[in-house]
Amino acid sequence: MSQLLDIEGLSVEFATSRGVLQVISDVSFSIKAGETICLVGESGSGKTVTSKAVMRLIDDENGSIRAGTIMLDGIDVAGLSQHALRSLRGKKMAMVFQEPMAAFDPVFTIGKQIIETILRHDRKKTSNQARHRAVELLRRVGIPEPELRMKQYPNELSGGMLQRAMIAMALSCEPELLIADEPTTALDVTIQAQILQLLQELKVEFNMSILLITHDLGIAAEIADRIVVMYAGQVVEQASTAELFAQPYHPYTQGLLQSITMMESDRSKRLYAIPGSIPSLADLPSGCRFHPRCPYASEQCVREAPVLQDRDGRQSACWNVERLLSGESDASAASITPHVEVAAAALRAEAESAGPDADALFELRHVTKHYPYGRSLFSREKKAVQAVDDVSFSIRKGETFGLVGESGSGKSTLGRVLLHIERPTSGSVLFEGQDLAALSRARLREERKHMQMIFQDPYGSVDPRWKVGDIIGEPFAVHGNLSAREKREAVEELLRLVGLSAASYDRYPHEFSGGQRQRIGIARAIALRPKFVLADEAVSALDVSVQAQIVNLLQELRQQLDLTLMFIGHGLNVVRYVSDRIGVMYLGKLVEIAPSEQLFRHPAHHYTKALVSSMPVPDPQRRREFAVIQGEIPSPARPPSGCRFRTRCPAATARCAAEQPSFREVGAGHYAACHDPVI
C-alpha cells in the first residue's frame, strides 16, 4: 500500500499567558492508504493536538508547528497557506469530533450545513444535486427518514444520530483520510458498536484511511491495523495491533493494557492501575517522561531521555525493553494488585444467595416519575415523558447495586428519585423502612446525612471559586457544628483517606487533574460517614488507568466505612467488576435483575444480551463482527405498546406488541421482564 500520511519530527507549541508551551515533541508516524491507525494514551498525552495539527486546526487556538513535516499524499500541510488549507480540508482530509454539537452551527439545519460543505468543495454541483447527495449520505450512515432530518436543527437529534450526521458531513466530499477524535467516548455501548461498524464499512466503501484517537484499548483492538502510543507529548511505542497486545515493548503500554477491566477480571482482586498521574507539560520530569511512574526505571532513565528506536520491526522508546520482556521489575504484579479483603468475597457470596428483600437499606415500590409537557387549555389529553415507570426493587445493606442501560433509559432519574432529590410521581421509596415522602422537611434533611452522591463531572458539581477545603468541608457546615480547626483536621483526614495530600486543602479545583477532582468529590461524599453513596457515571469520563484507581478507591472505602453503593454506568465491564447485583433499565422500565456474574454470563432479557454482545473485546485475537442493536431508543414521551424493547428486539412476536411482560423470577435471584427469555 502507498503512504498517504507521513508525519516526521513534528513539534507543536502554544502561546499561553505564561509564555510558549511545547505540547508535542518529535512525533513521527505514517498511515498507508486504506489503513486504520489508532492513537492511544491518557488525557494530556497529546493525541488530540497531533490530530488537529494534521488538519492545521491548531492555528485557530494560538498553536503553531515549531518543527517537522506533515506530508499528505505528497503535499506538505505544515507549509500551506490558510487559503490552500481550505481547499484541502474536506476533499483530502476530514475530521469527526468527540462532541458533535461543536461541529454543527446550532442556528442552521443539518441539511443546510451538509449542503454548504458539498458546494464549497465542488462548485460544479447545483444546490439540488448537493441536496440529493446530502440525503443519500444521511441514509448511508443509517439515519432514518433522512429527508425529515435534513430540516431539523442539531439540538433535535440524539447523540448517536448527531454523530452519524457529523460523519455524513465529513464524508460529503469523499476524503482520503478521516480523522476521528474519540468519536464514541460519550456514547452508549450499543451506539458505539453501531458507529464503529459504520466506520469500518465506510472505510472499505470509500477506500479511506482512518486515524482514530481513543483512550479505549478495547476499541483499538477491534478496529486498528496499527497502534501508536503517546505519553506526555511524545510517541513511546508503535506496533501492529496483534504485536502490541501480544507483547508491549514499553512499560507505559504494558500499564495501559493491565489497567483494562475485562469480563475475565477477577472481582476478588484490585484492578491494576498505573501509579501517579500524567505530568503537566509545563513541568515535565527529566530523562524519560514516564520514569516517575515506571516500575522498571533506572538511573539512566532519570538522566537521559530515550529515543524511539526500531526493535524487531516495531518502535519503542525505552532503555529497559529487555528487562520488561523478561518480566524483571521493581514492583511485582502481586504487590501492585493485592487481594481485596476476604470479607469482600464473603459479602458478595452472601448477597448473591440472599432473598430479594433480605436486609434492605432501600426499597422501591412501584416507583414512577413522569414529566408532564405540552398541556393546553383546549386539550384534555395529558402528555408526559415517562422517565421511570413502575419500578420495584431493593438495595441490600453492604452491597453494591449496579444499574446499566442506554442514555434515555431513566437510570439517572431513578437515582435522583431514590435520593429524594426529586419526588416520585407515584409509588414509594423506603430508606431503612421509612417512606421518605412521609418525612417532614427537617426529618428528611436529617436523613440526607446518610445518603450522598458522586457525580459524573466533578468539576461541574463544585464551585470553582471555592478552595478544596471549603468544598469538602461544606457538609460539616450544613449538618455539623465543628470549629474551624476541627473542620480543617477532618478535611485533611478525608484528603489522606482518598489518596490526596493534606496540602490540597488551600488549592482550587482547576489545579487538579480529572482523577484528582473525582477524589475530591468522593471525599465530600463520605465526609459525614453516610450509609449509602450513589455514584452516577462516576468513572465514565476518566482514562482507563485513572478509572482503575477510582474504582479501587471506592472498593476500599466500601470496606472501611461499611458503605452501601449504587453504581450507575455504561462501561459494562466496570459495572460488572464493582457490583454484587445489577439491574438493567430500558426506556423507564426495569427489564432484568441478577447477580453480577450470572447477568453477564447468562443474560435472560434480549436487551441485556444485546448490551453484553456490543462490548468491545480488548483482544485482537478474538476480533469479531460488532453485534449491533438496530435503531435507537424510542422517545420516553411515546413508548411502544407492550414490551418497550420490541421495536429493536430480534425475537419480538405479536404478543410482545399486545401485552406488557411481567417482571418474574427466571432463576435463583434472577428476574426478567420478557415473554420469551433467553435462558
UniProtKB/TrEMBL annotation:
<dbReference type="GO" id="GO:0005524">
    <property type="term" value="F:ATP binding"/>
</dbReference>
<dbReference type="InterPro" id="IPR013563">
    <property type="entry name" value="Oligopep_ABC_C"/>
</dbReference>
<feature type="domain" description="ABC transporter">
    <location>
        <begin position="362"/>
        <end position="612"/>
    </location>
</feature>
<keyword id="KW-0067">ATP-binding</keyword>
<dbReference type="InterPro" id="IPR050388">
    <property type="entry name" value="ABC_Ni/Peptide_Import"/>
</dbReference>
<keyword id="KW-0472">Membrane</keyword>
<dbReference type="InterPro" id="IPR003439">
    <property type="entry name" value="ABC_transporter-like_ATP-bd"/>
</dbReference>
<dbReference type="InterPro" id="IPR027417">
    <property type="entry name" value="P-loop_NTPase"/>
</dbReference>
<dbReference type="InterPro" id="IPR003593">
    <property type="entry name" value="AAA+_ATPase"/>
</dbReference>
<dbReference type="GO" id="GO:0005886">
    <property type="term" value="C:plasma membrane"/>
</dbReference>
<protein>
    <submittedName>
        <fullName>Dipeptide ABC transporter ATP-binding protein</fullName>
    </submittedName>
</protein>
<keyword id="KW-1003">Cell membrane</keyword>
<dbReference type="InterPro" id="IPR017871">
    <property type="entry name" value="ABC_transporter-like_CS"/>
</dbReference>
<dbReference type="Pfam" id="PF00005">
    <property type="entry name" value="ABC_tran"/>
</dbReference>
<dbReference type="GO" id="GO:0016887">
    <property type="term" value="F:ATP hydrolysis activity"/>
</dbReference>
<dbReference type="Pfam" id="PF08352">
    <property type="entry name" value="oligo_HPY"/>
</dbReference>
<dbReference type="GO" id="GO:0015833">
    <property type="term" value="P:peptide transport"/>
</dbReference>
<comment type="similarity">
    <text>Belongs to the ABC transporter superfamily.</text>
</comment>
<feature type="domain" description="ABC transporter">
    <location>
        <begin position="7"/>
        <end position="257"/>
    </location>
</feature>
<keyword id="KW-0813">Transport</keyword>
<keyword id="KW-0547">Nucleotide-binding</keyword>
